[in-house]
Specification:
By secondary structure, the chain is of the alpha+beta class. It has two domains: 221 residues, Rossmann fold (3-Layer(aba) Sandwich); 124 residues, OB fold (Dihydrolipoamide Acetyltransferase, E2P) (Beta Barrel). The protein has nine helices and 21 strands. Strands 6-7-8-3-9-10 form a six-stranded mixed sheet, sandwiched between helices. A hairpin with a 2-residue loop joins strand 11 and strand 12. Helix 2 packs across helix 3, helix 2 runs parallel beside helix 4 and helix 3 packs across helix 4. It is globular and about 70 Å long. The relative contact order is 0.12.
Length: 358
Amino acid sequence: MELTLENVSKAVYGQPYLYPFDLTLEPQQVTVLLGATQAGKTTMMRIMAGLDKPSAGRVWVDGVDVTGRPVRQRNIAMVYQQFINYPSMTVFDNIASPLKLARKGNVKEQVQALAEKLHIEAFLERLPSELSGGQQQRVALARALAKNAPLMLLDEPLVNLDYKLREDLRAELSLLFATGNSTVVYATTEPSEALLLGGHTAVLDKGELLQYGPTADVFHRPASLKVAKAFSDPPINLVQAQRTPTGVRLANSQEVSITLPAQSDQALTLGIRANALRLVGRAADIAIDGQVELAEISGSDTFVHVDTVLGPMIAQLTGVHDFELGANVQLHLDPSHAYVFEASGALLVAPELLREVA
């Protein structure tokens, strides 16, 4: 399925929910809608589904205008944050329901196969109320997959699950989507989910579509500071700088050699992702002095919050590190790993571009 939103916008009682935008989804691939709460993700998905009609613009499916066509007349599957299952039906019948409605054959075999993929085959005779939250969401996902609809919409389907369940289901879903034939739209607030699912990513902020493209391209070359902020977890570190003939000068008077385009602003912002900072420096690195404010261990990484001479910064360090609060620490940055943004917020230099110049 090829789904196109043409000059679509949405307002409710004069309040804009979506500003005008164009978007054509890549057929039979995953598109992640990435943005904070109230960025416009759910509104966009409801327009795609036919649950809401845009205030302006058209919705096209395979070249056919479906703008006024309600959801019941469209072949779609949806999964929400909440665990929505038929409470009086067993797990087997929940998954089988779309197959029976479509009068498909081999229902038992298809249900069994989906249940095995989502690791719920042991619960097929139970009612949803007898399952945990994670198991119920797996049932809802299995029912959506059973429908085999050309368009599958998932609105933050893992947000109400605990950390371990989210990690497990993310990995499973990326494999399921890769082997399916549906065009998948997946809404999330978490950059890590977008990176894991791959495909394409559309970044939204307060009703604006900021950037759309292959997920790796959007992550490595964010079009603006807003995109970089939305696609960074932990938050991207921002450092104010002034243009010089050879690069930039930081607030602590350090000179950093960066190749900049001839036409660029005098006042610039450096964006430094947390994993670009190190404790051990190299010859070409810049050193940033500071004091440890907080150290958090998450999985195999340590997140260190440092009050530096350039402002507060977060470093993501591989491995488990022990820091005393208030201890002096020196962070190191390879200048070629920094992003540079103009005063307007537009991207000026990305790390890949620096390496290409070199």
